[in-house]
Amino acid sequence: MSARLRGVAVAAYAAVSMAFFFLVQLPPMLFTGSADFSVWLARRMWAPSALWLCGVTVEVLAPRGFPDGPAIYASNHESALDIWLLFRTVPRNGLRFIAKQELFRIPVFGWYLRMARFVAVDRRHRARAVAALQQAGRIVREGTSLIVFPEGTRSPDGRVQPFKKGPFVVAMEAGVPVVPIAIAGAAALNPKGRLSVRPGRVRVAVGAPLTPADFPDKSALLREVRSRIIALHRELGGAGGDVDDAVAAPGVEGSS
Fold this sequence. Notes:
The protein has helices spanning 3-32, 36-54, 82-89, 109-115, 126-141, 166-174, 186-189, 218-235, and strands spanning 56-61, 72-75, 95-100, 119-121, 145-148, 178-184, 200-206. The protein is of the alpha/beta class. Strand 3 (95-100), helix 4 (109-115) and strand 4 form a beta-alpha-beta unit. The chain is globular. The chain starts with a helix and ends in a 21-residue tail after the last helix. Residues 71-186 form the Phospholipid/glycerol acyltransferase domain. It comes from Anaeromyxobacter diazotrophicus. Pathway: Lipid metabolism; Phospholipid metabolism; CDP-diacylglycerol biosynthesis; CDP-diacylglycerol from sn-glycerol 3-phosphate: step 2/3.
C-alpha cells in the first residue's frame, strides 16, 4: 500500500472509529459522570487499532515507571500519530490532553473532547488561554493527569522546537510531577502537512519525574524539562533540538 493510500485509509478510519467509540462510551459517561471509561477504550482499543492500520510498531522505554498520582506528561510533538502513541504509552485512565481549540470544532471528536473535559486552548486570545490553563490546574488538582505538547504544534522537521510556558504554569500551581517524554521516528512516518503514513517503528522514552517545587520558577522548570526531552530524543536516535533556544517567542503558534 502506498503512503498516500495508507494515509487516506487512516484518516477515514479515524473519522469512522471516533463516531463509533463516541456512541459506545456515551452511555457510561452520562451514567457515571466520568470519562475514564472512554480513555480506557482509547488506550486499549482505539489507539492500538489505529497504529496497527498505520503499520506502526511502538517501542516504549520507561525504566523508571510512572508516578502513582496525577502528573503532567510533557512530550515533543512530531506527527499526527502522537496522540495514539501517548495513549498507547501512558498507562492511566484518568488522563486528559491540553489541545488546541481547532480540534474541538471537529464533529463528533470535538463533542467527545468537551464532554470528557479535555482542555481547549484558544491560542489567539490570551484571556481565554489563561482561563483554559486555570481549568487545567483544577483538573490536575482533582486527580487527573494531563498530556501536554509544550511546542504547541507539530515540529516541521522532527527536531524539538521551543516550548510555550503555559503547561509549566499549570505544573507550578498544581504542584504535581512533570514527566518528560520523547517521541522519535513518528515525523518520518507521518510528516507534517502530508496525508501520508508509512509503516515503521516509533520509539518513545519516558524520563524521570521532575518536582516543580525544586525549581525557582516556570522558566527554569521549562528549560530543564525541554533539556531532558532533547537528551531522550537523541538517545532514541532523534535529532534533538537547540538547547539554548528554549522558550517560544510571544505570539508564536503554541498551546498558550
